[in-house]
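Lab notebook: predicted structure, single chain.

Context: the supervisor wants predicted structures on file for every construct in the current expression panel, including those that have not yet been purified. This is the next one on the list. No modifications to the sequence; it matches the entry in the shared construct table.
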Amino acid sequence: MEAVLESSRELAPGVRHFEFSVPGVERLEFQAGQFVSLSREIAGKDITRAYSIASAPGPGNRFALCLNLVQEGHFSPVLFAMKPGATVAMKGPLGTFTLREPARDMIWVATGTGIAPFRGMLEAWRAIPASRGRLTLIFGVRYEANLLYRAEFEEAAGALADFEFQPTLSRPGADWTGRTGHVQRHTLEAIGERRDLHVYICGLKAMVDDLRGQLKALGFDRRQIVYEKFD
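Prediction complete. Output recorded below exactly as produced.
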């Protein structure tokens, strides 16, 4: 299967949003939060990388990705150099980082491009009836300019009484008046005394493992913690 690049745009320095289509597929079937594997032969070697889908399923054959440019990486420089119409081999969608049933109150925790699957999941969650429970999204980055998809999340928070967006910066500028510090602390504050929540976590391995350990120490069952991590 091949994916065709339709367009891309810069979200922040070194971060781009990519829109792909899949020729020959009338409707691309997937669940919000899943990932695709992209492959290409680079310098004589077959290189494969998995990327979370940053969009919800739609009526057509499109999907979006949100990627960092890794200067010394093998694959991301190739994707960043692609022009509309270029193709790349694809497998999937795959993965189990998806919304669980039945619906209940949730906290979503993301750092960096770990926000990608939550963009699609939020759209899917908005389509669930009013009995979907309450949702808090805690999103941590270093700098304000790296709050990816910020306008979309702020729009949703303004429109929905049952959704709260909590961005936090670890290196805030002088004009920043919001939350500061790491997502782990803000997650524990949002949980408080509750132990009936589902917590979804996506980001770098160190953050995910640290937060999972703290949640387990609080008595959270493993089935309440849904996570995806990357290096």
